[in-house]
Amino acid sequence: MQTELLTYSHDGEDFDVFVAHPDATETRPAVLVFHAWGGRDTFAEDKARALAKLGYVGAAIDLYGIGKRGTDVASSEALMTGLLSDPAKLRSRLERAHAVVAALSTADADCMGAIGYCFGGLCAILSARMGLPLRGVVSFHGLLKLGEPLDAKVQAQIMVQHGQDDPMVPPAEVGAFAAEMKRVNADWQLHAYPGVMHAFTNPQANDPGFGAVYNEDATHRSWMEMRRFFEDTLV
User: Fold this and answer.
1) How many helices (H) and strands (E) does the chain have?
2) Is the dihedral of CA 16, 44, 152, 232 positive or negative?
3) 104, 106, 111, 112: CA torsion to nearest 10
4) Which of 190, 150, 152 is nearest to 171 (CA)?
5) Closest to 212 (Cα-Cα) out of 165, 145, 173
6) Can you say whether the dihedral through the CA atoms of 102, 97, 167, 87 is positive or negative?
7) pLDDT at residue 208 above 80?
8) What sign does the CA torsion over 146, 115, 194, 185 have?
9) Which CATH superfamily groups domain 2-233?
10) Which of 20, 39, 42, 184 is the most exposed place for a label (fewest CB within 10 A)?
11) Can you give the pLDDT at residue 143?
């Protein structure tokens, strides 16, 4: 495996992407990894490495900009809210990140996917709702807030990995999301893990009062579901 950090500019700001390449010379399907609310971190980069071990080009995206990271709940929420409150900017950054990864010499631009965690799960789903040329996207304990309706043709299959007891995604939002998926005729599925809360893939999450708790079983099962999903879609 080889890794590199590539920089690019967009709308007058600098960004970078952490790329993990499999040990292969031919082009491979590429999977974008969208970070949680604090910004791209070791967790996201480790997921890119894990995807490379599966034979994909793993690309951990930085949606905030070089050096912009949350250090606590307040600063992380401020960074995330800043993008969510400007939907056009968020969509523009997602589109640009996709183009950067698609242009990699090792990436098969016609066979790409995306995954995301928390805020990144929302971004993975949004990438599909925007109509970006992706084969499949997977949201891990992602936010399901829809924002403004979009009418682009959804090309990607969508998999939602959801903690049934996630207080940040109440049942009403799950229902609204299902209705929107039906409206846009999306090919989607949802896996709900009973008794599981938000951030269930993050070993550092241990705050029941906040609603974020790591769950080893859900982490393992959701990753295996992702593997099967990409074996079907990234072909």
Assistant:
1) 6, 10
2) positive
3) -50
4) 190
5) 165
6) negative
7) yes
8) positive
9) Alpha/Beta hydrolase fold, catalytic domain (3.40.50.1820)
10) 42
11) 96
Q: Is the pTM of this model over 0.90?
A: yes
Reading the block at residue 5, the tokens are: 């950090």
pLDDT of residue 24: 74
Taking the C-alpha atoms of residue 8 and residue 202, their distance in angstroms, rounded to an integer, is: 29
> pLDDT-based confidence at 175, cuts 50/70/90?
very high
Q: What is the DSSP string of 79-115?
A: HHHHHHT-HHHHHHHHHHHHHHHHTSTTEEEEEEEEE
Three-state secondary structure call for residue 27: coil
* Domain range summary for the chain, segments of one domain joined by +: 2-233
- Measured between alpha carbons, how far is 131 from 112 in angstroms, rounded to an integer? 13
Residue 226 CB contacts under 8 Å (≥ 6 apart), including other chains: 115, 138, 140, 159, 161
- SS3 of the chain: helix, strand, coil, percent, to 5: 35, 25, 40
Mean pLDDT of the chain: 96
